[in-house]
Structures are given as C-alpha cells and as structure tokens.
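Suppose you are handed a protein chain with no further information: no name, no annotation, nothing but its sequence. What can you learn? This example shows the usual starting point.
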Amino acid sequence: MIIYPAIDLLDGKCVRLSQGNYDIVTIYSKNPDEFAALWNSKGAKFMHVVDLNGARTGRPENDGVLKKIVKSAGVPIQVGGGIRSIGRISELMDMGINRVILGTGAVRDPEFVTAAVAKFGDRIVVGIDARDGYVAVDGWEKKSNRRAVEFARDMENIGVSTIIYTDIARDGMLTGPNLAAMKTMADSVGCDVIASGGVSCIEDIAALYKTGVAGVITGKALYEKRLDLAKANNMIERLAEES
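A reasonable first move is to predict its three-dimensional structure. Written in structure tokens, the prediction is:
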C-alpha cells in the first residue's frame, strides 16, 4: 500500500477544504512546492495534486505552481482537477506528470475515458468522489445519479486500472476513513483502489491496509502533524512482511 501526500491547489496556494466546501478553506502555504520537497524528504513514493480551481471551473489555473511542484517532488505525481480533454492530458504529461486523474469528465463522458485509456493506458486514473454513495461532480458541488460502485465497475470495463475513491463527508474532517465503503469498493472491482478522506492518524493507515486498498491519500493529518509519513511508511513495510 502506498501513502500519497496530498497537495491541493487553490489560487496558487496549498490549501485543504473541509468536506469539499470551497467556503471552508485552510491555507497552509503560499509556496506549495516547498511541501512537495518536504514530503520527498519524509520518504514519499508518490504525490497526489489537485487543481481545485480547475475542478470547479474546468479550466487549468495553477500550471505555474504545478511546474514548480514537479521540480521539487522528486517522485512520481498524479494530478486531477478540471481535466476534460485529450489535449489537456497531453499537456500535463509533457509537464512531467506521471498519472492524470479524470473525475467530472469521466462521469459525463465515458467515451472520453475510453479514448484516454486507449492513448495513455494505465497512466489514466479515475477519481470517484462519493456523497451518500453517489458520485459527485464539479468540484464535489453537485451530486449525480450514478452509484459509486456501479460507476467503478463501468470504468473497470473500459480498461481503467486505478480508481481513487473519496468519501466527501470524511474529507478534511480528521474523523477517520469510511472503512466499510473502502472495503466494499476494493472487493467490488479488480482495479487498484486508492482510498481518500478522513485519515487522522497512523492507526487509520493500519486499518485501511486491512481493507485491501492499494493506496491511501492523506493531507490534513500530515499538515497538522497528526501523522508522520516516515513512520507510517515503516509500519506499512512491517505489515507487508507479516502478511
């Protein structure tokens, strides 16, 4: 299982939202690339970056910062937020991004996902952000009529190999992940499932390991020093050796 430190970008700053609410913003840095360097020094193996402006509007607004993060990270990066075209995916790949996350674009246009997977293969990730079991779109502000597990199976049938599953109600709240939902998703598809939302401490990481997910994204717990990335990585190595 891989731990993905999260760097959420809003107006060029590193922030965290609470439950996806753009009106409840905590700003952690005006220089997000400094956190990319920090997570690298703590042993990050992969990083997760979201353009929150892009997720809301469908237009990239943080590319300048993103380029700095690529230089500072030193490890592979996956990026999501407002990616709605093959051309935009190509731009990000050319920028040095390793994996691109499709969210709203995937829900509204499955053929877009099919074309993206055909061209970029396993570098395409689908982000499934759920509210009450239903997929949310447009920066989490709208709820669709698609059930999360059913949508995940559709994406798997298209050829998607990695899914990021976020429980919006837990995101940024430090209340613990929705273990039952994550296990259900991991058991329902053959894709790698990356869990997101609610991680508050190292015990949450251990609990998620037991659900069978392939990865976990964590942001606020790292920024508020409730979780030590190096210690969490060491614990995962021990769990893997024991299993």
